[in-house]
Amino acid sequence: MFSTLASVKKILLATAGVICVILGAIGVVTPVLPTTPFLLLATFLFSRSSPKMNKFLLENKVFGKYLSNYFNNKPIPVGEKIFSISFLWTGLGLTFYFADLPPRIIAFLVFIGIAITIHISTLGMHRLNFILKMLVLSWRIRFEKSVPEPAVIGLWHQDLPACFAAFKRRNIAVLISKSQDGSKFARLAESLGYNVFRGSSSRGQSEVRHLLEALKAGNSAGMALDGPVGPALVAKPGAEWLAQKAKVPLVNVSVKYSRAFRLKSWDKTFIPLPFSKISILY
Fold first, then answer.
1. Helical H runs in the chain?
2. What's the rounded Cα separation, in Å, for the pair 24 and 67?
3. What would you report as the CA-atom Rg of the chain, rounded to the nearest whole angstrom?
4. Contact 208, 242 (CB under 8 A)
5. I need a surface site. Which of 54, 102, 130, 266 has the fewest CB within 10 A?
């Protein structure tokens, strides 16, 4: 029984993969359909059903270049992702409506549809960043009172995740280190609507000038009061200097959590649990 189900699964996945290749081929010669998402779907399906077909697709002279763009981390337009996901679920919906399928097959196709939707949604994104973004967007933020703009928003390093969620989509300028971990955090910050500059406040005015320029242009800037490496909860002069230089207020915020745990890092960072409440005070 299990071998029969496994065979049916491979046939369904391979068939869906062939359909995706056909749709991707249409997209090569016409702007009506996107190419890359369908070919990536095909590789996803073939990798779980037919290694030979997957190898053929990856090494194909025509389709290989579209796949190499993805594997070389070139971005895929959001519009193409939305179109592909919509096309996928429209096709599944029509199949469920017109075909008299057993409940097991319907459940299996729904599961595949969900898996493919997640796969398409995260194409071109670091998977960890995607998970972190979903976590950040689940938090419920409450401000005690509105924060003046423009301003230097000072916070403790331990509250960085919560403050990133609280002040998203305000084009606030932030300075993020050029390290490998900093690169991942920078991508997350940009996806949340921050104006990201790379550098470190511990290196002096030459790095902080980007924040100063943003403040003079009328935007706010965020800065950890205890710097990028601590010691924790010991304020450094950078935020105060920046506020005085730009002639804007320094707003020192504190954070209250309904549910959170702490990392074993130098600052003992707070990580709020999904859907928890976060209160921003100053």
1. 2-29, 36-46, 51-59, 64-71, 78-98, 103-121, 127-138, 160-166, 180-191, 205-216, 238-246
2. 11
3. 24
4. yes
5. 102
Q: What's the pLDDT at 140?
A: 92
Question: Is the pLDDT score of 74 beyond 60?
Answer: no
- Rounded distance between C-alpha atoms, residue 252 and residue 239, angstroms: 9
- Output the pTM of the full model: 0.58
Q: Which two tokens stand for residue 221?
A: 């800037």
Average pLDDT of 88-108? 79
pLDDT digits (tens, 9 = 90+) for 173-184: 988 877 766 777
Write the DSSP string, 136-193: HHHSEEEESSPPPSS-EEEE-GGGHHHHHHHTTTS--EEEE-SSHHHHHHHHHHHHTT
Could you tell me if 84 and 38 are in contact, meaning their C-beta atoms sit under 8 angstroms apart? yes
Asked whether the predicted pLDDT for residue 35 surpasses 60, the reply is yes
Place of tokens 């331990």: 158
Backbone φ/ψ region at 168: left (φ over 0), alpha (ψ -120 to 50), beta:
beta
The two structure tokens encoding residue 54: 């997957």
* DSSP 3-state of 111: helix
8-12, 14-18, 238-242: lowest mean pLDDT where? 8-12
- 3 state DSSP class of 80: helix
Which class for 91: exposed (0-12), middle (13-18), buried (19 or more C-beta within 10 A)? Answer: middle
SS3 271: strand
